[in-house]
Automatic annotation (TrEMBL), chain A:
Keywords: Cell membrane, Coiled coil, Lipoprotein, Membrane, Methylation, Prenylation, Transducer. The lineage of its organism: Eukaryota, Metazoa, Chordata, Craniata, Vertebrata. It comes from Pterocles gutturalis. CDD domains: GGL. Gene3D superfamilies: Transducin (heterotrimeric G protein), gamma chain. This is Guanine nucleotide-binding protein subunit gamma.
From TrEMBL, chain B:
Gene3D superfamilies: YVTN repeat-like/Quinoprotein amine dehydrogenase. It comes from Pterocles gutturalis. WD repeats lie at residues 20-52, 110-151, 152-195, 196-237, 249-281, 282-312. GO terms for biological process: signal transduction. Belongs to the WD repeat G protein beta family. The keyword tRNA processing does not apply. This is Guanine nucleotide-binding protein subunit beta-5. SMART domains: WD40. The keyword Repeat applies. SUPFAM superfamilies: WD40 repeat-like.
Length: 67, 312
């Protein structure tokens, strides 16, 4: 978009004026919730805990291929 | 500090299980199908290929009328793909298994921008597509009619990436651009809800954290960062003095504990999201890693590179 420097700055300023009204929560609370989310889901995360070879869809299959 | 008492992660061994070869030039973008096995990828050579990642077979291929196909996406149904780049458009191709049908013949032009298409994504249906462009805007389109449903203005320069919020969190998406800003948008009103400007350079990639309460970004300033949406601030920086090349692409593991990031120094760094430390560095690509996505069920991730290949 072709906007002058003044137009760009005005757009930024208008945006910041809107954002100043946003409700914000404390990081001490939200950070803890992110940690808890991860801990609750970690057991199901295949890249985190690994996948048994027989259940791994990407395991290299040995033997012959039928074409 | 939040993660002080969290157990550190052990050693990680991640192996390349598949190498997808077939593109004639740099791979620029890829996306997974919801079936967790098919992948669509696009390249500088103008080709868009659909692969079966289990067998490495190419199931579909189409040649675009332009080079530098910078964006591609799989439709939620698995029945179509979208792509675009230097043609300034986003086009949708239905996928057909009929050998007599020419895929290019059914092409539908959906989005029109006034500069290159940098990113595209279907929303939660095949009916709408969200696009990001070098023209500094994002836009939401109706696939059937090609109608512009909403446009998103606010970035002061090229928009390079976007990601849709997980469906449970509502109708928002995040975009990142050359203005160093990440912006969160309300899809219905077109308004920017929150913006973040802490990177020192272009933001190449943005990805929502699995719960939707945060998102990560990767930038040419060689760092990845985590932004907490409810606290409205950056909460972590993933960087090392030894990492001096830009991060091109980021994605989370299923639980959000790991952040995978592809870099312009040909490596993939795996970060512990909570502790801020790097848990692994993956070598293998012979040129820049340009794109990276974790599969829908989290069992694998795919990386695409300027070395013409994709690795799973």
């Amino acid at each position: 978009q072709d906007m002058t420097e003044k137009e760009l700055l005005k757009m930024e300023l208008d945006q910041l004026k809107r954002e100043v009204k946003n409700e914000r929560q404390m990081v001490s609370k939200t950070g803890k919730e992110i940690k808890e989310y991860i801990e609750s889901m970690a057991g199901e995360d295949p890249l985190l805990k690994g996948v048994p070879e027989d259940k791994n869809p990407f395991k290299e299959k040995g033997g012959c291929t039928i074409s | 500090q939040v993660a002080e008492r969290v157990e550190a992660l052990g050693q990680f061994v991640m192996k390349t299980r598949r190498t997808l070869k077939g593109h004639g030039n740099k791979v620029l973008c890829m996306d997974w199908c919801k079936d967790k096995r098919r992948i669509v990828s696009s390249s500088q050579d103008g080709k868009v290929i659909v692969w079966d990642s289990f067998t490495t077979n190419k199931e579909h291929a189409v040649t675009m009328p332009c080079t530098w196909v910078m964006a591609c996406a799989y439709a939620p149904s698995g029945c179509a793909i979208a792509c675009g780049g230097l043609d300034n458009k986003c086009s949708v191709y239905p996928l057909t298994f009929d050998k007599n049908e020419n895929m290019a013949a059914k092409k539908k032009s959906v989005a029109m921008h006034t500069n290159y298409l940098s990113a595209c994504s279907f929303t939660n249906s095949d009916m709408q597509i969200l696009t990001a462009s070098g023209d500094g805007t994002c836009a939401l389109w109706d696939v059937e009619s090609g109608q512009l449903l909403q446009s998103f203005h606010g970035h002061g320069a090229d928009v390079l990436c976007l990601d849709l919020a997980p469906s449970e969190t509502g109708n928002t998406f995040v975009s990142g651009g050359c203005d160093k800003k990440a912006m969160v948008w309300d899809m219905r009103s077109g308004q920017c809800i929150q913006s973040f400007e802490t990177h020192d350079s272009d933001i190449n990639s943005v990805r929502y954290y699995p719960s939707g309460d945060a998102f990560a970004s990767g930038s040419d300033d060689a760092t990845c960062r985590l932004y907490d949406l409810r606290a409205d601030r950056e909460v972590a920086i993933y960087s090392k003095e030894s990492i001096i090349f830009g991060a091109s692409s980021v994605d989370f593991s299923l639980s959000g504990r790991l952040l995978f990031a592809g870099y312009n120094d040909y490596t993939i760094n795996v970060w512990d999201v909570l502790k801020g430390s790097r848990v692994s560095i993956l070598f293998g690509h012979e040129n820049r890693v340009s794109t990276l996505r974790v599969s829908p069920d989290g069992t694998a991730f795919c990386s695409g590179s300027w070395d013409h290949t994709l690795r799973v």
